[in-house]
Amino acid sequence: MYINIMGISNIDGDDEIEGADPLLQFLIVLFIILLIVSVGTIGYRIFAELEWIDAFHNGAMVFTSTSLVVPVKTYIGKIFSSFYNLLSGIFVLIIIGVIVRRGLRGAGISTIPTTSNNDDDDDSKDYTNVFDIY
What is the reported pTM? Predict the structure, then answer.
């Protein structure tokens, strides 16, 4: 048994999730989003020397994978902006992955059957759960 953001799952391939509270999951994702946008806002304020509203605007726009609104003119601000762009893109992909995984599980799609050889026996099939990381 292991614990992930989606709840508690069994390692033996059982797809049933016990104790997955949708409100808790929503609050965790909301907290992560607010934390990342706050880091971007503070970073743009300190390193790029932008006003608070411009720093928040840049942080939110970059997090949503749009673009910078106010150009960054300091060298350290450009370095911060580069790393923030990369990391916020990764976090957006992770959050989308969690949402898609949850939707696939809700639709009953959580395992993909693969065969280890050409026999048609049920014993030769290896059912691998591709959405769980152990």
Answer: 0.61
